Structures are given as structure tokens and as C-alpha cells.
Amino acid sequence: MRSTAALLLGTFAAVALSVGSAAAQEWHTTSSLMGKSKYGENFERYDYVNPDAPKGGTLNSVVQGSFDSLNPYIVRGTPAAGLAPFGGGLLYDTLMEQSIDEPSVSHPLVAEAFKYPDDYSSATYRLDPRARWHDGQPITVEDVIWSFNILKEHSPWYRRYYENVTEAVAAGDREVEFRFDQKGNRELPKILGDMAILPKHWWEGTDAKGKKRDITQPTLEPPLGSAAYRIESVRPGQDIVWARVPDYWGAKLPVKIGRENFDKRKYIYILDTEAAWQAFTKGGFEDINREPSARDWKTKYDFPALKAGDVIQKEFQSISGAKFQGFAMNARRPLFADRKVRQALTLAYDFETPNRMLSFGLNTRVNSYFMGSDLASSGLPQGKELEILEQFRSELPLELFTQEFKLPVYATPQDERTHLREALKLLSEAGWTLKNGKLVDVSGKPFEFEVLSANDGLEAPFNFYAETLRKIGITARMRIVDTSQYTNRLNDYDFDMILAPLAQSESPGNEQREFWSAKAADTPGSRNYSGIKNPVVDKLVERVIFATDRDDLLAATHALDRVLLWNYYYVPQLTRDVDFYAYWNKFGIPEKQPTYIGPDTESWWIDVEKEKALAAKYGRSN
User: Fold this and answer.
1) CB-based contact 565:377 (threshold 8 Å)
2) 375 neighbors 555 (Cβ within 8 angstroms)
3) DSSP 3-state helix, strand, coil percentages of the chain (rounded to 5)?
4) Cα(284)–Cα(617) distance, rounded to whole angstroms?
5) pLDDT tens digits for 181-213?
6) pLDDT value at position 37?
7) Residue 312 and residue 614: Cα distance in Å, rounded?
8) How many helices and strands (H and E) does the chain possess?
9) Pairing of strands 239-244, 264-270
10) What pLDDT, on a 0 to 100 scale, did the predictor assign at position 603?
11) Burial of residue 369 (number of CB atoms within 10 Å: 0-12, 13-18, 19+)
12) Residue (of 581, 445, 560, 579) closest to 508 by Cα position
């Protein structure tokens, strides 16, 4: 990538991945799966940022739970805030950076350009010669190759994401070629840009005590990085402080201009939700609070600092596909192995009552895994989608072809009776009997399960579901555990049910294996929480990945969505098209914020005078 528009112009053009074969061997800078980037060939910076945003100050954040590792790319351990199991987090730069304000667009970072043949059988990335590690050494092709091999071997996320990438080889001093075992995967050349690059020389070196480092194990030694921040201090389980790198090599790249403005980022760990809330209201611990609960947004924000105008409440629109959230049933457990049982548990979920009584009607029921975009299935299958599904007719529920998928609506008491009666009928067909108010199997074992969570704030809405289930003889409880225990149990699939969010892109592809494939179901740490092992789902995932164009992708995704819905792996819950943010009035904020993902807090900066005033008023250091 070049640091200015003048350097970007000329040799390279910002083009889409969907260009014709005549241009397929050209080097590309900005990549897109949905047409050209809105910035065209003149990408100088994001159009919403303040290019003159001042650097300085500290962003304070609270994290609930604990941590015990600074290595996020392995299943073992709970990584500290700022580190990410996929992507680079605050520490590592990736080959390219996904756009903040456009779907399915990436801009250069460690790599300045990439190319691919017209059959999509490989991709070659060319590194920016200026890219450096924090110790001043250059980021090399050798680092990229080593990172690919390490991540694919030890990270379940990268393993599924790059399943069709067979090897990475040097193609020149600054070029690395990724070779694929199949052709026609249109997304794969682009998403290789999401790969974090790790420093081979540091990980293969020794620590201060002369002990050889091991990337396959957790560590509390701050790793060498390449991104805008480095770890300044660590107190395991208590806090981690990140400091902005003053000579960061990429500070003037277009994707960085006007962003990453805080000199320090401090994350303080607090064990429970109420303590974290109190820390925010007092100030100095949590500067920006993204509120997940519509009920709390309407009822809890009445503390003195907010009334005084020192804390601001603001709602930000997000036009990206809605985020799916639902109860994931672990079908690895015999209790949830039967589709009729999963359908009954879905019928017993009353969305409307808690939305009205707890959430002021602000939430929307999700009815698709790709909610809020043209990727969501609807009506009856037709056209190319129907052609795809017809291949699997004998393996699919008959009603998938004859009925529109609809979730139960609890608008009246009669609705509840109707849905629960149908749920009991399905449970009876699955071998369960209601005796003395308890649902039991043929051996007399009661129908009981736990919802595992690390957030005690979920108990109130869950209690509505538990009460409805009680009416048909099912006992459901919520077990609250600390973050480390939750992470470990999640990685090992040691749960009955969890409340799981699921974010989808507008160009679904290789990540679908991570969500739904049989291979992922058996891989610790994957996001196939439901343990789905469905041959039709596996084939449809591959159909999505190898879609030939946008229309083909839409048809394949509709088919996948419909099969997932009719198999009832999740109890779909809620979503919103607005993000709730409350923040202490210490920031400068660009007037325009990207609506695609919601606010980009990386484009905010500390207003020194505001921060001083708050510090004086509340008797704390700034």
C-alpha cells in the first residue's frame, strides 16, 4: 500500500475481485466482492475521519472476567483484552484491513497489492517495503509463510477459514504466493488479506531467562508486535495497558489516517456485571459503554454524571446486516439430538412478552441467520434456490418445500396455548411424556437442561423462557460462571445451551465452515456451537463458498439459511438496527460516523480540555 493517493495512482488501480479474466493477472490494491469501492482509485483516507485528530490521552475500559494468556491463537488459555483469536487485534497488522464503512472491501496494510489468476487457483501478495516490527526489523515473506503454517496448524478459526489453501511459498523478495487445492473460490484471494502476520524471529527466539519461546502454549510475556499499539504493562487477571507506538510504521497509511488516536488504552478486569456498571457511572474506569440491553438503556441511565451532562447517551444507526442472536442447542448432547425436540423448544420461546415488558419493544425477532440483507431466505424456495434444494429433497423436511418458515408469535394467551400444545405434541412424538407436571422419557428421566453464561445480566430475560418451559414440564436453569471457565467450557463444548451471537458478512464464504460444518463440530474452539453434522449443510456450505457470481451466491445462501432454520439448531432470539452508546464527555468525535458497522470509536480522540474539566470535577487524575 502507498501512503498517499499520489503513490496509489499510476501503476495500480483499485478494482473489484469480480473483474473479467483479461484483468485477472493485474496487481490490485483495494479489493471488493461486491463491485468497486466507493473510493475508486483515489483512496486517501476514510471520508468520515478527522485527518488532523490530535493524538494523546488514555481510553479506559472495563472487561468482565479475567485473563491468563497473551497468546490468542491457541485454544488453551483466556487471552487478554486487545488480543484477538482471529485477525491481529491491537498487536499485529494483517496483510490487508477490512473496510470500516463498506461491506466486503479490504484496503492494503502489510501488503501493498495482490493478484490472482482468472481461475482463482492461487493468490500472490506483495509486501510493503516499509512494514516493520516494533523492534525495527522488516516484516518479511518468511514471516508471512511461517505465520500461515503456524496459524493453520494451531488455530481452529484459521484452519477452517483457509481449508483450501495448501501452502504459502516465496515468489520473490517481497512476494508470497498462496496456492489452493480447488479452483473457483472467488472469496479466497481476498480473505487471505485477513491473516495476522506474526514475528518468526521473536517466537523462535528466547525470553529474558534464556528459555525458548513456544507459540503452541499460553504465555504472559508481552509478544513483539507490528501494529499501532504495544503492550506496556500486564497484571494477570487485573489489568493490561497498551501504549501507542510513536514511530509506528503504518501511521500515515490511508486506513490509519485520523484513527488510533489514544496514547494509551487501559483495560481493567472486574468480575461481575453490577461492579462493571458502577465503575462506568463513577468514571475513570470505563469511558465508553456499549449497552447491550434495551431495558437497561431505558431504565438505568439516571445517575448524577449523566444528569449533569458529563455522560452522553447516543444511538447510532447501523445499516449492515442485522446481528443474529439465539439460544444454541448443543446437538452433541442426546437431549437435543432430535429435530422435533429442537422445534418444540423453539415453539416454546415467547419473544413478544419480554420484548414488551423488559425491552420497551425496541428489539426485533430474528427469522434468518442472514437477517437484514438480501441473503436472508423468505417465502417458499423458487428459481435457482429451489433447483439447489431439489438435489437434497429426500434428506430435507418436507415442509421446507411447502411452507414458509415462520416463528411462533405470542400476541395473546390463546397463542401461548396453541404453541405449547404443538410443542408437547412434538415432544410426545420424540418419546417424552408429561407426568405429574414433569416431562420424562421412557426411563422416567426428567427433561432438564442448563443455559451456560458469563453474564448475569441475561437472567431476567431468560427467566421468561424458563417459566414458559415449566408449563410443559421442562426445567431450565441458567448457570453463571466466570469468563475463564466459560471460555474453557465453550471451547470443549461442555454445555447444554448457550446464548450465542452470530455476525455474518454481506459476502458469506469460507467462514461458513467454521459455523456449520461437521469438521468444525469436532474441532475444539470452533463456532459450530450446535455441533451440526448434517451432510446437506456441508454440501450447501461448499456451494456458498464456490458460488460463481452474486446471483449464484444469493441462491446458495438462501438454501443454506432455509435448511438451517428448518432443522432448528438455534432458538432465534433478537436483533436491533441501532447501537446504544453512553460515553463520558471527554471525546472529540467526527460529525459523520460510518453507518455500515455503527460508530468507529477508533476515529474518536481525547479532548484535553474536556478531560481536564472532568478530572477536576470528579477528583481524579486524567
Assistant:
1) yes
2) no
3) 30, 20, 50
4) 12
5) 999 999 999 999 999 999 999 999 999 999 999
6) 87
7) 13
8) 20, 25
9) antiparallel
10) 97
11) buried
12) 560
Grid cell locating 1: 500500500
The closest alpha carbon to 563, from 590, 536, 526, 524, belongs to 536
Taken in order 184, 189, 195, 200, is the CA torsion positive or negative? positive
Angle at 133 between CA 128 and CA 138, to 5 degrees: 50
Taking residues 352-378, report their average pLDDT.
Answer: 92
Nearest to 178 by CA among 101, 117, 94: 117
Integer-rounded Cα Rg, in Å, for the chain is 25
50: its cell numbers: 478527522
Helix (H) or strand (E) run with residue 570 in it: strand 570-572
* CA diameter of the chain: 79
Q: Name beta bridge partners: 79.
A: 69
Sheet holding 58-64, edge to edge: 58-64, 264-270, 239-244, 229-235
Residue 497: the pLDDT is 98
Half-sphere exposure (Cβ direction) of 442: Cα atoms closer than 13 Å: 3
> What gap in Å lies between CA 549 and CA 427, rounded to an integer?
42
DSSP one-letter string for 455-524: -GGGHHHHHHHHHHHHTTT-EEEEEE--HHHHHHHHHTT--SEEEEEE---SS--THHHHHH-HHHHTST
Cell of 193: 488479506
CA dihedral 104, 592, 90, 175 (to 10 degrees): 40
Give whole-number Cα distances, 441 to 342, 432, 448, 555, 598, in Å: 15, 5, 11, 40, 47
Q: What is the pLDDT of residue 622?
A: 57
Long-range contacts of 615-619 (CB under 8 A, 24+ apart): 617/310, 618/282, 618/283, 618/284, 618/305, 618/310
- Alpha-carbon torsion (24, 29, 32, 35), positive or negative: negative
Q: Which residue has the cell 461481575?
A: 272
The CA-to-CA distance between both ends of the chain, in Å, stands at 37
Q: What pLDDT digit, counting tens, does each position of 101-148 carry?
A: 888 899 999 999 999 999 999 999 999 999 999 999 999 999 999 999
pLDDT-derived band of residue 484, with 50, 70 and 90 as boundaries? confident
